[in-house]
Amino acid sequence: MPDDGRPLLPAAVLIPLIDHESGLTVLLTRRTDHLASHAGQIAFPGGRREPEDADDVEAALREAEEEVGLPPAKVRVLGVLPPYVTGTGYRVAPVVGLVRPPLDLRADPHEVADIFEVPLAFVVDPASHQQHYRDIGGARRHFYVLPWQDRYIWGATAGMLVNLARRLAQP
């Protein structure tokens, strides 16, 4: 539960691993600047589960198609990481999927300002995982940051990337 006692809202994101000949990358988006929450932040395609979603996988695939035009048929689901609880009251299911090019992605102009890829090798390198903190309302909140070129990947997205890296490092 969030600090205020409200129940967590179910959400799901797709962590798309793009299988290029040159190596795997992770597809990410930058949210548009006019959104009411998390405007301008780096995120995975995803969002709140809808009543018609059968499960977290279906929700993540639906959201990815809506936000970046990634057809569910192009995604081979590899698994679901443990839920990630956000400070904003969501229980996010990170669905990992393998995607083979070619892709014809298109950003939903209402939600997505940009679509880009980060090498998986960067994500799994512990040297890429910076820990930062902010004092909010008298409490110190720690979070991960993965700075990539001119991008500032932080918060829940960075936390889920660190969890992915740790899972991939397990024997």
Please explain how this structure is put together.
The protein has 171 residues and is α+β, with helices and mostly antiparallel strands. It has a domain at 9-121: Alpha-Beta Complex (Nucleoside Triphosphate Pyrophosphohydrolase). Helices cover 19% and strands 43% of the residues. The strands form two sheets. Strands 1, 2, 3, 4, 5, 6, 7 and 8 form an eight-stranded mixed β-sheet that branches. A hairpin with a 2-residue loop joins strand 1 (9-20) and strand 2. The model has no long low-confidence stretch (mean pLDDT 91).
Query: Radius of gyration, rounded?
Result: 16 Å
Give helix and strand order, one letter per element, not per position: EEEEHEEEEHEEEH
Helical coverage, percent range: 10-25%
Give the strand tally: 11
Low-confidence runs (pLDDT<50, min 5 residues)? none
The CATH topology of the domain at 9-121 comes to Nucleoside Triphosphate Pyrophosphohydrolase
What is the first-to-last residue Cα distance?
A: 32 Å
Q: Which geometry do the CA atoms define?
A: globular
Q: On the 0-100 scale, what is the average pLDDT?
A: 91
User: Biggest sheet, open or closed, and with what strands and sense?
Assistant: 8 strands, mixed
CATH architecture of the domain at 9-121: Alpha-Beta Complex
**Count of DSSP-assigned helices:** 3
Helix/strand/pairing category:
alpha+beta
| CATH homologous superfamily (4th level) name of the domain at 9-121 | Nucleoside Triphosphate Pyrophosphohydrolase
Strand content: 35-45%
CATH structural class of the domain at 9-121: Alpha Beta
